[in-house]
Amino acid sequence: MKDNSLLTKEINILLEKIEKAALPSDLAEKCREMVNQLRLNWQIGDFTSNFQRVSQYVDWVTALPWQKESEDILDLKRARQVFEKNHYGMNSIKERVLEHLSVLILRKKRGEKKVRAPVLCFVGLVGTGKTTMASSIAEALGRKFIRIPFGGLGDPLYLRGLSRLHPEAEPGQVIKGLVRVGVKNPVILLDEIDRVADEALNTIMGVLVELLDPEQNDRFTDYYIDYPFDLSSAFFIATANNTRRIATAVLDRLEVIQMPSYSDEEKIIIGKKYLLPRAMKEAGLTEENLVIDDNCWPRIVRPLGYDAGLRTLERTIKGICRRIAKLIVEGRGRQFHLTLENIKEFLPSW
Fold first, then answer.
1. Strand residues in the chain grouped as ranges (E)
2. What is the DSSP-derived secondary structure letter of residue 343?
3. What are phi and psi of 137, to 5 degrees?
4. Rounded Cα gap, residues 268 and 262, in angstroms
5. Which site among 229, 256, 270, 295 is 20 to 30 Å from 14 CA-CA?
6. Distances from the Cα of 212 to the Cαs of 79, 131, 201, 245, 251, in angstroms?
7. Rounded Cα–Cα distance for residues 296 and 342 (Å)
8. Residue 241: CB partners within 8 Å, gap ≥ 6?
9. H-state helical runs in 64-156
10. Is 105 buried (19+), middle (13-18) or exposed (0-12) by CB count in 10 A?
11. What phi and psi, each to the nearest 5 degrees, are found at residue 341?
12. Per-residue pLDDT tens over the stretch 245-264
Protein backbone atom coordinates (compact mmCIF):
# COMPACT_ATOMS: atom_id res chain seq x y z
CA MET A 1 0.00 0.00 0.00
CA LYS A 2 1.23 3.47 -0.85
CA ASP A 3 1.43 6.11 1.85
CA ASN A 4 -1.38 8.57 1.08
CA SER A 5 -0.28 11.22 3.58
CA LEU A 6 1.85 13.15 1.08
CA LEU A 7 -0.85 12.86 -1.58
CA THR A 8 -3.55 14.13 0.78
CA LYS A 9 -1.41 17.04 1.94
CA GLU A 10 -0.54 18.22 -1.59
CA ILE A 11 -4.09 17.86 -2.84
CA ASN A 12 -5.46 19.76 0.14
CA ILE A 13 -3.04 22.63 -0.54
CA LEU A 14 -4.27 22.89 -4.14
CA LEU A 15 -7.94 22.66 -3.14
CA GLU A 16 -7.41 25.39 -0.55
CA LYS A 17 -5.91 27.68 -3.23
CA ILE A 18 -8.96 27.07 -5.40
CA GLU A 19 -11.41 27.82 -2.58
CA LYS A 20 -9.62 31.02 -1.54
CA ALA A 21 -9.44 32.42 -5.08
CA ALA A 22 -12.44 34.30 -6.51
CA LEU A 23 -12.75 31.99 -9.51
CA PRO A 24 -15.85 31.69 -11.71
CA SER A 25 -17.86 28.77 -10.38
CA ASP A 26 -17.49 26.52 -13.44
CA LEU A 27 -13.75 27.14 -13.61
CA ALA A 28 -13.40 26.36 -9.91
CA GLU A 29 -15.25 23.09 -10.46
CA LYS A 30 -12.99 22.26 -13.41
CA CYS A 31 -9.93 22.85 -11.22
CA ARG A 32 -11.32 20.64 -8.44
CA GLU A 33 -11.87 17.82 -10.91
CA MET A 34 -8.30 18.13 -12.16
CA VAL A 35 -6.94 18.02 -8.61
CA ASN A 36 -9.10 15.08 -7.56
CA GLN A 37 -7.99 13.21 -10.69
CA LEU A 38 -4.51 13.18 -9.13
CA ARG A 39 -5.72 10.48 -6.68
CA LEU A 40 -6.15 8.11 -9.62
CA ASN A 41 -2.75 9.13 -11.02
CA TRP A 42 -1.26 8.20 -7.65
CA GLN A 43 -2.70 4.71 -7.85
CA ILE A 44 -1.42 4.01 -11.38
CA GLY A 45 2.02 5.49 -10.74
CA ASP A 46 1.76 8.53 -13.00
CA PHE A 47 1.55 11.12 -10.25
CA THR A 48 4.68 13.29 -10.48
CA SER A 49 4.35 14.65 -14.02
CA ASN A 50 0.60 15.18 -13.73
CA PHE A 51 0.96 16.87 -10.35
CA GLN A 52 3.44 19.32 -11.82
CA ARG A 53 1.07 20.11 -14.71
CA VAL A 54 -2.02 20.52 -12.52
CA SER A 55 -0.21 22.46 -9.81
CA GLN A 56 1.20 24.92 -12.35
CA TYR A 57 -2.23 25.43 -13.91
CA VAL A 58 -3.89 26.02 -10.54
CA ASP A 59 -1.16 28.52 -9.60
CA TRP A 60 -1.74 30.57 -12.76
CA VAL A 61 -5.53 30.44 -12.61
CA THR A 62 -5.75 31.38 -8.94
CA ALA A 63 -3.24 34.23 -9.40
CA LEU A 64 -5.36 35.94 -12.07
CA PRO A 65 -7.34 39.01 -10.93
CA TRP A 66 -10.78 37.70 -11.92
CA GLN A 67 -12.60 40.33 -9.86
CA LYS A 68 -9.96 42.78 -8.62
CA GLU A 69 -9.80 46.29 -10.11
CA SER A 70 -7.90 49.38 -9.04
CA GLU A 71 -9.82 52.59 -8.34
CA ASP A 72 -9.39 55.30 -10.94
CA ILE A 73 -8.11 58.66 -9.72
CA LEU A 74 -10.82 60.94 -11.10
CA ASP A 75 -9.06 64.28 -10.77
CA LEU A 76 -8.58 66.47 -13.85
CA LYS A 77 -6.23 68.86 -12.10
CA ARG A 78 -3.95 66.06 -10.96
CA ALA A 79 -3.99 64.47 -14.43
CA ARG A 80 -2.94 67.78 -16.00
CA GLN A 81 -0.09 68.06 -13.51
CA VAL A 82 1.13 64.55 -14.38
CA PHE A 83 1.09 65.32 -18.11
CA GLU A 84 2.86 68.66 -17.70
CA LYS A 85 5.45 67.07 -15.42
CA ASN A 86 6.30 64.37 -17.94
CA HIS A 87 5.67 65.92 -21.37
CA TYR A 88 6.00 69.17 -23.23
CA GLY A 89 3.36 69.84 -25.88
CA MET A 90 1.26 66.87 -27.07
CA ASN A 91 -1.82 68.94 -26.31
CA SER A 92 -4.20 66.93 -28.51
CA ILE A 93 -3.36 63.69 -26.68
CA LYS A 94 -3.54 65.30 -23.26
CA GLU A 95 -6.94 66.80 -24.06
CA ARG A 96 -8.25 63.48 -25.41
CA VAL A 97 -7.37 61.66 -22.19
CA LEU A 98 -8.81 64.49 -20.09
CA GLU A 99 -12.03 64.18 -22.11
CA HIS A 100 -12.20 60.47 -21.29
CA LEU A 101 -11.51 61.22 -17.64
CA SER A 102 -14.35 63.77 -17.65
CA VAL A 103 -16.72 61.14 -19.10
CA LEU A 104 -15.65 58.72 -16.36
CA ILE A 105 -16.37 61.33 -13.69
CA LEU A 106 -19.85 62.16 -15.02
CA ARG A 107 -20.93 58.57 -15.64
CA LYS A 108 -19.65 57.32 -12.29
CA LYS A 109 -21.53 60.14 -10.59
CA ARG A 110 -24.65 58.62 -12.15
CA GLY A 111 -23.77 55.28 -10.60
CA GLU A 112 -22.36 53.50 -13.66
CA LYS A 113 -19.64 51.12 -12.58
CA LYS A 114 -18.26 50.11 -15.97
CA VAL A 115 -17.22 52.61 -18.65
CA ARG A 116 -15.25 51.35 -21.64
CA ALA A 117 -12.09 53.29 -22.44
CA PRO A 118 -11.26 54.35 -26.00
CA VAL A 119 -8.57 52.36 -27.79
CA LEU A 120 -5.96 54.97 -28.65
CA CYS A 121 -3.21 54.43 -31.21
CA PHE A 122 -0.26 56.83 -31.21
CA VAL A 123 1.35 56.97 -34.65
CA GLY A 124 4.64 58.76 -35.17
CA LEU A 125 8.35 58.51 -35.81
CA VAL A 126 10.79 56.89 -33.39
CA GLY A 127 11.50 58.99 -30.31
CA THR A 128 8.39 61.17 -30.42
CA GLY A 129 7.17 60.03 -26.99
CA LYS A 130 4.57 57.37 -27.81
CA THR A 131 5.59 54.86 -25.15
CA THR A 132 6.24 57.40 -22.40
CA MET A 133 2.88 59.06 -23.02
CA ALA A 134 1.14 55.70 -22.49
CA SER A 135 2.97 55.33 -19.18
CA SER A 136 1.90 58.85 -18.17
CA ILE A 137 -1.74 58.03 -18.93
CA ALA A 138 -1.52 55.10 -16.52
CA GLU A 139 0.01 57.39 -13.89
CA ALA A 140 -2.67 60.05 -14.43
CA LEU A 141 -5.48 57.52 -14.02
CA GLY A 142 -3.80 55.76 -11.11
CA ARG A 143 -3.80 52.46 -13.02
CA LYS A 144 -1.22 49.70 -13.27
CA PHE A 145 0.79 49.57 -16.49
CA ILE A 146 1.60 46.63 -18.77
CA ARG A 147 3.82 46.98 -21.85
CA ILE A 148 3.80 44.22 -24.47
CA PRO A 149 6.44 44.79 -27.19
CA PHE A 150 5.52 43.68 -30.72
CA GLY A 151 8.78 44.55 -32.50
CA GLY A 152 9.91 41.46 -34.42
CA LEU A 153 7.11 39.33 -32.96
CA GLY A 154 6.72 36.19 -35.06
CA ASP A 155 4.37 33.94 -33.09
CA PRO A 156 0.79 34.74 -32.01
CA LEU A 157 1.19 32.20 -29.19
CA TYR A 158 3.42 34.79 -27.51
CA LEU A 159 0.17 36.67 -26.90
CA ARG A 160 -2.28 33.77 -26.67
CA GLY A 161 -0.30 31.22 -24.70
CA LEU A 162 0.48 27.59 -25.44
CA SER A 163 -2.01 24.76 -24.90
CA ARG A 164 -1.46 22.55 -21.86
CA LEU A 165 -1.08 19.58 -24.20
CA HIS A 166 2.48 20.78 -24.82
CA PRO A 167 5.16 19.96 -22.22
CA GLU A 168 6.50 23.56 -22.23
CA ALA A 169 3.01 25.10 -21.99
CA GLU A 170 2.59 28.52 -20.37
CA PRO A 171 0.25 31.51 -20.64
CA GLY A 172 0.74 34.32 -23.15
CA GLN A 173 2.01 37.82 -22.37
CA VAL A 174 -1.48 39.25 -21.79
CA ILE A 175 -2.25 36.80 -18.98
CA LYS A 176 1.28 37.05 -17.57
CA GLY A 177 0.97 40.83 -17.44
CA LEU A 178 -2.37 40.65 -15.62
CA VAL A 179 -0.94 38.27 -13.03
CA ARG A 180 2.05 40.57 -12.55
CA VAL A 181 0.00 43.73 -11.91
CA GLY A 182 -2.78 41.97 -10.00
CA VAL A 183 -5.75 43.92 -11.43
CA LYS A 184 -8.04 43.42 -14.44
CA ASN A 185 -8.22 47.09 -15.47
CA PRO A 186 -4.62 48.18 -16.18
CA VAL A 187 -3.41 50.34 -19.02
CA ILE A 188 -2.09 47.80 -21.56
CA LEU A 189 0.39 49.17 -24.08
CA LEU A 190 0.66 47.20 -27.32
CA ASP A 191 3.96 48.69 -28.46
CA GLU A 192 4.94 48.91 -32.14
CA ILE A 193 2.10 46.78 -33.55
CA ASP A 194 3.25 47.57 -37.10
CA ARG A 195 6.64 45.92 -36.60
CA VAL A 196 5.64 42.26 -36.30
CA ALA A 197 7.35 39.68 -38.51
CA ASP A 198 5.92 39.36 -42.04
CA GLU A 199 5.10 35.66 -41.72
CA ALA A 200 2.98 36.22 -38.60
CA LEU A 201 1.32 39.51 -39.57
CA ASN A 202 -2.15 38.12 -40.37
CA THR A 203 -2.44 35.82 -37.36
CA ILE A 204 -1.21 38.47 -34.92
CA MET A 205 -3.66 41.00 -36.38
CA GLY A 206 -6.37 38.43 -35.70
CA VAL A 207 -5.39 38.28 -32.03
CA LEU A 208 -5.40 42.09 -31.90
CA VAL A 209 -8.97 42.20 -33.18
CA GLU A 210 -10.06 39.97 -30.32
CA LEU A 211 -8.08 42.03 -27.79
CA LEU A 212 -9.42 45.38 -28.97
CA ASP A 213 -12.97 44.65 -30.13
CA PRO A 214 -15.49 45.65 -27.42
CA GLU A 215 -17.78 42.86 -28.63
CA GLN A 216 -15.08 40.22 -28.05
CA ASN A 217 -12.58 41.31 -25.41
CA ASP A 218 -14.89 40.53 -22.50
CA ARG A 219 -14.15 36.86 -23.23
CA PHE A 220 -10.53 36.77 -24.38
CA THR A 221 -9.30 33.19 -24.30
CA ASP A 222 -5.68 32.32 -23.65
CA TYR A 223 -4.88 28.82 -24.94
CA TYR A 224 -3.17 27.84 -21.70
CA ILE A 225 -5.85 29.11 -19.30
CA ASP A 226 -8.55 27.77 -21.69
CA TYR A 227 -11.24 29.90 -20.09
CA PRO A 228 -12.56 33.35 -21.14
CA PHE A 229 -11.12 36.34 -19.26
CA ASP A 230 -12.87 39.73 -19.23
CA LEU A 231 -10.55 42.43 -20.61
CA SER A 232 -13.28 45.01 -21.17
CA SER A 233 -12.13 47.09 -18.18
CA ALA A 234 -8.58 47.47 -19.49
CA PHE A 235 -7.43 50.67 -21.20
CA PHE A 236 -5.66 49.59 -24.40
CA ILE A 237 -3.14 51.86 -26.10
CA ALA A 238 -1.28 50.89 -29.26
CA THR A 239 1.73 52.55 -30.88
CA ALA A 240 3.05 52.39 -34.44
CA ASN A 241 5.51 54.18 -36.68
CA ASN A 242 2.89 54.18 -39.44
CA THR A 243 -0.41 52.44 -40.23
CA ARG A 244 0.50 50.78 -43.55
CA ARG A 245 1.00 47.31 -42.05
CA ILE A 246 -1.94 47.44 -39.65
CA ALA A 247 -4.95 45.43 -40.83
CA THR A 248 -8.09 47.36 -41.68
CA ALA A 249 -10.07 45.34 -39.15
CA VAL A 250 -7.66 46.46 -36.42
CA LEU A 251 -7.60 50.09 -37.58
CA ASP A 252 -11.41 50.17 -37.40
CA ARG A 253 -11.14 49.59 -33.67
CA LEU A 254 -8.45 52.23 -33.07
CA GLU A 255 -8.63 55.96 -32.53
CA VAL A 256 -5.50 57.05 -34.37
CA ILE A 257 -3.67 60.10 -33.00
CA GLN A 258 -0.67 61.43 -34.90
CA MET A 259 2.44 62.18 -32.87
CA PRO A 260 4.12 65.23 -34.44
CA SER A 261 7.85 65.62 -34.97
CA TYR A 262 9.56 68.16 -32.72
CA SER A 263 10.94 71.46 -33.94
CA ASP A 264 14.37 72.61 -32.75
CA GLU A 265 12.69 75.20 -30.51
CA GLU A 266 10.54 72.53 -28.86
CA LYS A 267 13.55 70.27 -28.40
CA ILE A 268 15.46 73.05 -26.64
CA ILE A 269 12.61 73.53 -24.18
CA ILE A 270 12.28 69.76 -23.62
CA GLY A 271 16.03 69.41 -23.22
CA LYS A 272 16.25 72.17 -20.62
CA LYS A 273 13.09 71.40 -18.68
CA TYR A 274 12.83 67.61 -18.82
CA LEU A 275 15.85 65.76 -20.17
CA LEU A 276 18.72 67.66 -18.54
CA PRO A 277 17.40 67.52 -14.94
CA ARG A 278 16.69 63.80 -15.36
CA ALA A 279 20.12 63.10 -16.85
CA MET A 280 21.90 65.11 -14.14
CA LYS A 281 20.11 63.14 -11.43
CA GLU A 282 21.05 59.83 -13.08
CA ALA A 283 24.68 60.95 -13.30
CA GLY A 284 24.81 62.08 -9.68
CA LEU A 285 25.23 65.77 -10.57
CA THR A 286 23.76 68.84 -8.90
CA GLU A 287 22.91 72.25 -10.32
CA GLU A 288 26.24 73.52 -8.97
CA ASN A 289 28.18 71.02 -11.08
CA LEU A 290 26.90 72.00 -14.53
CA VAL A 291 25.73 75.22 -16.22
CA ILE A 292 24.98 75.36 -19.96
CA ASP A 293 24.74 78.66 -21.81
CA ASP A 294 21.53 79.17 -23.77
CA ASN A 295 23.39 79.70 -27.04
CA CYS A 296 24.84 76.15 -26.74
CA TRP A 297 21.48 74.44 -27.05
CA PRO A 298 21.14 74.64 -30.87
CA ARG A 299 24.43 72.70 -31.07
CA ILE A 300 23.22 70.16 -28.49
CA VAL A 301 19.92 69.67 -30.33
CA ARG A 302 21.67 69.05 -33.66
CA PRO A 303 25.09 67.57 -32.93
CA LEU A 304 25.03 65.53 -36.14
CA GLY A 305 21.97 66.71 -38.09
CA TYR A 306 18.19 66.58 -37.90
CA ASP A 307 16.32 63.94 -35.90
CA ALA A 308 12.50 63.97 -35.66
CA GLY A 309 12.40 62.42 -32.20
CA LEU A 310 14.10 62.95 -28.87
CA ARG A 311 16.30 59.87 -28.50
CA THR A 312 19.40 61.40 -30.05
CA LEU A 313 18.94 64.51 -27.92
CA GLU A 314 18.52 62.40 -24.80
CA ARG A 315 21.65 60.38 -25.57
CA THR A 316 23.61 63.58 -26.21
CA ILE A 317 22.55 65.13 -22.91
CA LYS A 318 23.29 61.94 -20.99
CA GLY A 319 26.70 61.80 -22.64
CA ILE A 320 27.46 65.38 -21.51
CA CYS A 321 26.46 64.52 -17.94
CA ARG A 322 28.57 61.38 -17.89
CA ARG A 323 31.57 63.33 -19.17
CA ILE A 324 31.14 65.88 -16.39
CA ALA A 325 30.79 63.12 -13.78
CA LYS A 326 34.05 61.56 -14.97
CA LEU A 327 35.89 64.88 -14.79
CA ILE A 328 34.65 65.44 -11.23
CA VAL A 329 35.74 61.97 -10.11
CA GLU A 330 39.16 62.51 -11.71
CA GLY A 331 39.53 65.67 -9.61
CA ARG A 332 39.57 68.03 -12.60
CA GLY A 333 36.98 70.37 -11.17
CA ARG A 334 33.64 70.65 -9.36
CA GLN A 335 31.88 73.27 -11.46
CA PHE A 336 31.68 73.19 -15.24
CA HIS A 337 30.35 75.96 -17.46
CA LEU A 338 29.57 74.94 -21.05
CA THR A 339 29.92 77.74 -23.63
CA LEU A 340 30.14 77.97 -27.42
CA GLU A 341 33.92 77.86 -27.03
CA ASN A 342 34.06 74.51 -25.20
CA ILE A 343 30.76 72.74 -26.05
CA LYS A 344 32.38 70.78 -28.87
CA GLU A 345 34.50 68.91 -26.33
CA PHE A 346 31.36 67.43 -24.79
CA LEU A 347 29.40 66.59 -27.94
CA PRO A 348 29.57 63.26 -29.79
CA SER A 349 31.70 63.07 -32.90
CA TRP A 350 31.62 60.12 -35.29
1. 120-123, 145-149, 187-191, 220-221, 228-229, 235-240, 255-258, 290-292, 336-338
2. G
3. -65, -40
4. 10
5. 229
6. 25, 18, 16, 17, 10
7. 9
8. 123, 124, 125, 126, 192, 194, 195
9. 76-86, 91-109, 130-141
10. middle
11. -75, -35
12. 999 999 999 999 988 778 88
